[in-house]
Write a structure and sequence with these properties.
homotetramer; alpha/beta; Rossmann fold; seven-stranded parallel beta sheet; 15 strands; globular; Adenosylhomocysteinase (chains A, B, C, D)
C-alpha cells in the first residue's frame, strides 16, 4: 500500500499548481503573525532536528504554513488529508515541493486511496503525530503498533478527536502521550468560538445568497462551536434557537437570552439549522417531517453524521442540486429541504469554503508548533494518555499574539503577586 | 447604436446559460415570499398591461424575479446592467428567453458597449423607467428628451441615485416623476442596513479567508449602509471605528459605543476598511501612507470612487493579484495594502459576490413592483420631481412580508385610534 | 387661583432643602457638558433678556440646570411640574431661591393644586412656553387665549406632547409656533433610545432586585423608546418580545431578531412588560388573565393609561405593597401580578427613580435652550403651528457635544462637497 | 466575646423589623424557583437533621431564603454578616425570629463587633460552615482548631474565598473539606457573569443618574465578573476597555472586540471604572493623576482594596459627599474623582444596593443547599481540602431551574450515548 504516491507525482501541471499553492500560502501567512514569529524562532534554533512528523490534517493554505514552520524547525514531514473534500491540491503540491516535506493529500480521493495515503505517511516512520480527527493515531494503534515505541507523542486538534482519544485512553488503549490541543483555552475559545462561528455562517450565507436578519437560526449543541455560531448569528440579527441535551449548557444558553427547546420543536420554526454537537443523528426523520419549505441544513461538527441524510433521502420524492453546494430534497407535499455540502463540515466542504479564518488558525497552529517542540524537548516526561497543553506553552502563544497585535498589558506588581499567594489577609 | 444586440444573440451556448440562469432564479424565488405573493396578484390582475419598462439594474437572479414579475403583470420589459461587473450572463439569458423581456445586460462590457446597451433599451420607447443608479433617467434626459412626454414616471433604487435625482430636481432638470424607492423605510432599513451590512462583510470574509473577531473595522460613513456594516461587524466581535463628516451621525455612532475619529487617525489602526459614503476620495494618499501592512480595503458604496486608487497606484512600487478578487499594492517599505474588487461595490463585484441577500431584495423589489403599479394607475397625479413612496404602498409590502413570515400583530382598537387622534385628554 | 404659592413659601426647612437641591444640581451639571458650554455663552450674550418663560416640566436636578441656564441668559422664569410625582422639592426650592426664577413645583400635589400651580405660572405672563407634555400650551389655549398675542412661541419635549400638538394644529387650534424638540434627531435618538432605554430598565431592576438574563421582556411599542428598551434589555441577555400595531415597525423589530407577536400571546410567556406606546389600554384584562405568577408590569410611556389598572383591580382578589414601588395584584388562583410605580412613567415615578440620565438630558436640554434662543431671535419668522427644530440648531448642539467628548471628525473637502451637489457624473 | 448578642436583642422595634424583613424575603422567594422546589424537598426529607450550621454571609433577603431552607431541612443555624455594610437588619431580625436560627448580623458594626459576631456564631459549635469570603473557615482554623474534628465540611461562595482556600490548602493548612461552590458552572457563570454584571451596573447607574451609552467603561480584570460587567456595559452601548494582567484573558477580551490596554493608559480616557480582580492596588495614584474630571470609580470585587483610597485621599485637596453613596475627591487642579460606596463591593454597599438579583442567587444558593446536604450524606468521603462541587449536584440544580422556567430539552438517545462513548468509528 505504501505505493500510494505523493501529490507531486499525481498532478498534470504540477508547476502551476505549486505556484498557485504558494500564492495561497503567502496570503495566509500575511495574516498569521504567530506563525511568522515562530518561523523566525524555529529556523534559528532548529528544535525539531532529527524528528519525523506524521500528519493528517486539512491540507490548505493555513495548515501548510504550520507544516512549513515545522519543516523549518528541522523536521521531516509526511502529511495527508483528514477529509477527502478539504484538500487543496495546489497547496498540497506546494508543500510537496519542499525537500523536507512529502504530501499525499489529494482532493476527492475515494475511501481506499484515503487510507492508502495514511499508510504512506505511516511508512515514513513518524516520531511524532499531528492529527485533526485522530486518523493518524488510530492508524498507528490499529495497524502499526510496532511504531508506538519510537513515537515521542502526538498532538490532536479537534473536539471530536480529543473526545475519542479520551475514550481510547479510558479503555487503556492509547499508548503514547497526546496533547489535547483542542481543549486548551488558546485553541478552544478562538478557533471554535470565533473560527467556526464566523466561517460557518459566512460560508452558508455565500453559498445560498441568504441573510440572517430576522431568521430563526437553530443551533444544535451549545459547546464552544455552538456558542460561536449562536453568538455570531445573533450578532447578525438572527433569532437564535438552541437545542442541547446537557442541562447546564441548555441553561447557559437560556440565560444568554436564546430560545432553548427540543430539536423537534425547533424543527417546526427554524429557517437555518447548524449542527455542532460532534454526535450523530442530531436531526432526524421526524424533524425533517416538521420542517418548513426552503430551510437550510448545515453541519459545523467534525463528521457528516449529524444530519441523518439516509432518512432524508428515504423521505424525499426528489433530489437535485438547487445550487452549487446545495442539494434540495423535495418532500411529497412539495416542501424543499436544502442540505449544504452534503452534510459535511460546511466551512470546509462547501464548494466556496475556505476553512477557518487565517488568524484563528494562527492561534491553533501556534499551539501545535510549541506542543511539537515540547514533545521533542520533554516528551519523555509525559506518560501515555491524553495531556492538557502545559499552561506556559498556551501562555507563550498568547503573549506572541498580543505582541503582534500591538496590545500591551500590565503585569502583577510584587505586592499584588504576594497578595494573590497569601490567604491570611482579613476583611 | 441601437444595433447593440440582446444577450441571447451574443452567447455561444445560450441554451445551457438559460437553464443555469433559470436555476438561479428559482433558488432566489424560493426565498422571496413577497414577490411570490405579488406574482399571483399581478398575473391575475394585469396591472401593467400596455406599458413598456426601460430598466438598468444589476442583472442577477433576484432582480430577474422582479423583471419577470413585471412582465407577468402585463408589461414589455427592456433591461440592461447598471454596472459592467454585476451582470450574470446566464440570468440575463434566462430573462431574454421570456417573450415579453429583452435583456441587453452582459458582464464585463467596455464603456462603449455599456452605453450602447442603454441606448438599445431606450430604443424600446419606455413608458416607465426603473433604475439602480439613475443611468436610465440620465440617458433619457440627456439624449432623448423627446421621450419624456410619453413617460409616466420612474422608480430609483439606490441612495446615490436618489441623491443625484434630488440635485437634478433642485436644478429644475428632472422632467417626470420618480419614486425614491431607496428612501422608503421598507427599502432603506432592510436593504441598506441588513442587506449591505451582512453581504458586504460575508463577501469580504469569503474573499480573504479572514475573520472579524478582534479586528479594527473602520466604517466610512454612518448612513444606513454604514450602520449596517458597523452593527454586523460588531456582532462578529470586531472593534468598530466610524469615520463620518456629519456631526449628528458622528454623535450617533459615538453614543452607540463605537470609536469615532477622522479617517487619517483611523487609517493608522484599522485592519479592515469599508467605505459606504456615496462620496469620492474618502480614503486618500495620506491615509494609505498611514496604514499597516496587510490591511483590507473594500467599498460598499455605489461607485468605485471612494477609495482613491489612482493615488494608491502612484504610491505603490508593485501591484499584483494576491488572491482572486484581491489586488495587493506594495509600498516602498514593504507594506501591502489589499484592495478588494477593484474598489467597486464589493458585494456585487467580487469574484464570489452574490449581491444582496434574496430576502432583503425581496422587500426592495416588492416596493419597486407596487410603485410601478402606482405609476400606471395614478402616475398622472404626480408632478415631475422626486416623490416619496406613498405610505400605503410601503405598508402594503410590510403586511405581505409579515404574513409570509407568519408574524401576527395587533391592530389599534377603536378606542386607541380615537385616543391617538385626540388632543384634549388631560394628565 | 393665582394664589397658589411658590415652593419657597410651602416648605418648613427651606434652607436645607435648597442646599440639598443645589448639591443635586451640581452633580448633574458635572455630567452635562453641553449645558456648561451654553451657560458660558448665554451668560455672556444675554440672548433671553426681557423674556418671561412659562415652563411645565419634571422639576429635578437636570431640568433645573436648564432652567438656571435660561435665567442666566437673561430670562425671568416661572415653572411648575408636569407630573405630580416627578418633582424633587429640594431642587424646586433651590431654583426658587434664584431671583430670576419662581418655582411652584411640589411633589405629590392633588389635582386641584396641580392645575392651580399651572395657573400661577401663567399669571407671570409668559412670552415663551417650555413644555414636557404640553400642559402649558393647553392651559393657555383653553383658559388664557388672551395671552397668545404676546407669546413668541414654545418648545415641547415629549413624543406624546408633540403628537397632541400636531393634532391640535391639524384642527387649526394651535395659535403660536411650537418647536417639536422631541422629534429632532439630537433629542429623539438619544433621549428616547438611550435615556428611556437605560433608565427604565435600571429603575425596574433596582426597584425589584431582579435581573434580565434569560427573562422574556415584552416591549409594547417599537418607537424610539421601545427600541431603546428592547436593545438595552437584549444587551442584558433578555429574550425580547415586541408587541406593535404598525406593520413596518413590527417588521423592523422582526428583522432585528426579536420575537414579534400580539400582546395577548406575549402575555402568556412574558416575565417583564414595559409599555412605551403613548397610547391607552395596551395591556388589558384579557392579557392579565393570561399572565404568569410573579410578572412585572411597568410603563415607560408618558401617561399612566397604558396598563389598564382599573381592570386589574377588578380582577384581583387582593392588592398590597409587595415592595416599595411595587403593588401586587393577587388573582383568584394565587397568581401575583406586580405593577411598578402605579403604572406611571417608571423611571420618574418609582420611589428610587432619578429620571433620565444626566448626559442624555444634556442633549435634549441643549436643544431646548437654543430653540428658546431662536424664538427670541427669529420667532416672528415662524407661523403658528408645530415646527421642526431648524437643522443648524440641532447640528450646533451635536458639535458642542462632540467637542466636549473630545471626539474629532473630518469635514467634507471642497471636491467632496461639490461632488455631493452635482448630478452629472457618470458611472 | 461570646457575649455578642443576636440582632433580636439589639433592635428597638424588633417586631416591625421582622415584618419588613419577612416582606423582603417573600418578594425574593417569589423569584427564586429553585429554592422553592428545594424547600418542599428538604421539609419533606429533613436531610440536615441534627446538624449545626455556622454561616458568614451577606444577610439580606435572598440569603435569608437559603438560611430558612437549611433550617427547614432540619438544621440549627447560626449566622453573621460577611461585610459590615451588606446586612439588612430587618431581614436579620426576621431570620432571628425563627426558632432554629440565630442571627448576629447587624449593619454598620465596627471591627471589634464584626469579629465578636463571628465568635458568637462559632460558639454554637458548627458541624458545617457556609461562607461568603471564608471568614468562618478562617476563624475556626485560626482561633478554634479544636472544632475541626467535629466539622463535616464547608461550602464557600466567592471567587476570592476559594482563591484563599486553595492557597491555604496548598500550604497544608486547610483541615476539613470545603466545596468550591464559586467555581462550579452553575454558580460561576450565572452569579458572576449575570449577577455581578447586571447589578453592579444598575447600582452605579441608579446611584449616579448616569448612563452608559457612549461612555468609556474601563473594566479591571476579565474573569467571570469582569466579563459580565464588560458584556452588560457593551450591551448598554458603552465602549468597553479591559485592563488585565493574564495574557490569555487579555487576548480573549481583545478577540471579543474590546479595547485592551494597561490601566494607566485606560485611566486617561475612562469615564467609569469598575474593578473586578480580587486583587489589591488595581487603581493607584499614578492612575488617579491621569484621570479626567467627573470619572466614576466603583469596585465589584470582594474587598475594598482594589482602588487605593489612601493614595487618593493623599492626592486630594478636598473630599465631600457629592451624592448619597458618592464621595468626591477633588484634585489640586479642580478635577473631581467620584468613588462609589467607599470602594466596597458596589452592588452590596451602595446606599441603594440590593445585592445580586434574586434569580441568580437562586442558582448559587440552590448549589449551596445541595452541597450542604451532600456534606451530611457523604462528607466522610471527602478529604480535607478544596473540592469541586460534584457534577451530579450541579446538574441537579440546572434541571430544577430549567423545569421551573418551563424549558424542555432533549436527552441523548441510546445510539447517541453509545456513539459518544465509542472511539472506533471511522471517518
Amino acid at each position: 500500500m505504501q505505493s500510494y504516491p505523493p501529490i507531486g507525482e499525481q498532478l498534470d501541471d504540477v508547476e502551476s499548481a505549486r505556484e498557485e499553492g504558494r500564492r495561497k500560502m503567502e496570503w495566509a501567512l500575511q495574516h498569521m503573525p504567530i506563525l511568522r514569529e515562530l518561523r523566525e524562532q524555529f529556523a534559528e534554533t532548529q528544535p525539531l532536528a532529527g524528528q519525523t512528523l506524521g500528519m493528517a490534517m486539512h491540507v490548505e493554505a493555513k495548515t501548510a504554513n504550520l507544516v512549513e514552520l515545522l519543516a523549518l524547525g528541522g523536521a521531516e514531514v509526511a502529511i495527508t488529508g483528514c477529509n477527502p473534500l478539504s484538500t487543496h491540491d495546489d497547496v498540497s503540491a506546494a508543500l510537496d515541493a519542499n525537500e523536507s516535506i512529502t504530501s499525499y493529500a489529494k482532493r476527492g480521493v475515494g475511501e481506499d486511496d484515503y487510507y492508502a495515503a495514511i499508510e504512506s505517511v505511516v511508512s515514513h516512520g513518524p516520531t511524532i503525530t499531528v492529527d485533526d480527527g485522530m486518523d493518524m493515531v488510530f492508524a498507528i494503534h490499529e495497524d502499526h503498533p510496532e511504531l508506538v515505541d519510537t513515537i515521542v507523542g502526538g498532538a490532536e486538534e479537534t473536539t471530536t478527536g480529543v473526545h475519542r482519544l479520551r475514550a481510547m485512553a479510558a479503555d487503556g488503549e492509547l499508548n503514547y502521550p497526546v496533547f489535547a490541543v483542542n481543549d486548551t483555552p488558546m485553541k478552544r475559545l478562538f478557533d471554535n468560538v470565533h473560527g467556526t462561528g464566523e466561517s460557518a455562517l459566512a460560508t452558508i450565507a455565500m453559498t445560498t445568497n441568504l441573510s440572517y436578519a430576522g431568521k430563526n437560526v437553530v443551533v444544535a449543541g451549545y459547546g464552544d462551536c455552538g456558542r460561536g455560531v449562536a453568538k455570531k448569528a445573533a450578532g447578525q440579527n438572527a433569532n437564535v434557537i438552541v437545542a442541547e441535551v446537557e442541562p447546564r449548557r441548555a441553561l447557559e444558553a437560556h440565560m444568554e437570552g436564546y430560545d432553548v427547546m427540543p430539536m423537534n420543536e425547533a424543527a417546526a420554526v427554524g429557517d437555518v439549522f447548524v449542527t455542532t454537537t460532534g454526535n450523530r443523528d442530531v436531526i432526524t426523520r421526524e424533524d425533517f417531517e416538521a420542517m418548513q419549505d426552503g430551510v437550510l441544513l448545515a453541519n459545523a461538527g467534525h463528521f457528516d453524521i449529524e444530519i441523518d441524510l439516509d432518512a432524508l433521502s428515504e423521505l424525499a420524492v426528489d433530489e437535485y442540486e438547487a445550487r452549487d453546494g446545495v442539494r434540495a430534497y423535495e418532500l411529497a407535499d412539495g416542501r424543499r429541504l436544502n442540505v449544504l455540502a452534503e452534510g459535511r463540515l460546511v466551512n470546509l466542504a462547501s464548494p466556496i469554503a475556505l476553512g477557518h479564518p487565517a488568524e484563528v488558525m494562527d492561534q491553533s497552529f501556534g499551539i501545535q508548533a510549541v506542543c511539537v517542540r515540547e514533545l521533542v524537548e520533554h516528551g519523555d516526561e509525559y506518560a501515555a494518555g491524553v495531556h492538557d497543553v502545559p499552561d506556559d506553552l498556551d501562555r507563550e502563544v498568547a503573549e506572541i499574539k498580543l505582541d503582534a497585535e500591538g496590545v500591551e498589558i500590565d503585569s502583577l506588581t510584587d505586592t499584588q503577586a504576594e497578595y494573590m499567594d497569601s490567604w491570611s489577609h482579613g476583611t
